[in-house]
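User: Okay, second chain of the day. Same drill as before: sequence in, structure tokens out.
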Amino acid sequence: MSYLVLVLLLASVLAGTGGLAAMVVKKEPFYGAVGLFVICCPSSILALVYAAVA
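Assistant: Same drill. Structure tokens below.
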């Protein structure tokens, strides 16, 4: 179970980082906002779940 949560956490962080990279490449601030949201909200919940399960 903890490996599944860890994989989801890493996928969430990579998706957020991809959004921030798209913001830099395309000069579109919306992608940066989405990237920050993806890194902050689901990732923090998944990190708490991983700490509880591990």
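The two ends are 9 Å apart (CA to CA).

User: Thanks, on to the next one.
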